[in-house]
Design a protein that fits this description.
The chain is mostly beta strands. It has a single domain, classed as Sandwich (Immunoglobulin-like), CATH 2.60.40. Helix content is about 0%, strand content about 50%. The protein contains no helices and 7 strands. The termini are far apart. About 10% of the residues are buried.
């Protein structure tokens, strides 16, 4: 008898989310290689305060960061299948 070990994560769909920040224009661009029914986008400050919340329906979302203070922020993208958290800094 042969036993196999399978990681549960191998069965979960993982969405590829990329972010880019234009420091000059203060625009955060979020892109995904796949379409999803609906995603929730949250930006949290370093003090874990939600400073932006919205939806992300297509393969690309642009968020204007004018009025955001300099510092480190976390971006959370939540879809039906998973949740992704990435950090970025405004200089």
């Amino acid at each position: 008898m042969t036993l196999y070990s399978i990681d549960v994560d191998d069965f979960l769909y993982k969405e590829d989310i990329k972010i880019s920040l234009n420091q000059k224009d203060k625009i955060l661009c979020i892109s995904s290689g796949s379409k999803s029914d609906n995603r929730v986008v949250k930006i949290n400050s370093f003090k874990d305060k939600i400073v932006y919340s919205g939806t992300f329906l297509n393969q690309q979302k642009k968020i204007k960061l004018i009025g955001f203070n300099k510092g480190i922020y976390s971006l959370e993208v939540i879809s039906a299948n998973n949740s992704i958290v990435k950090e970025f800094a405004i200089k």
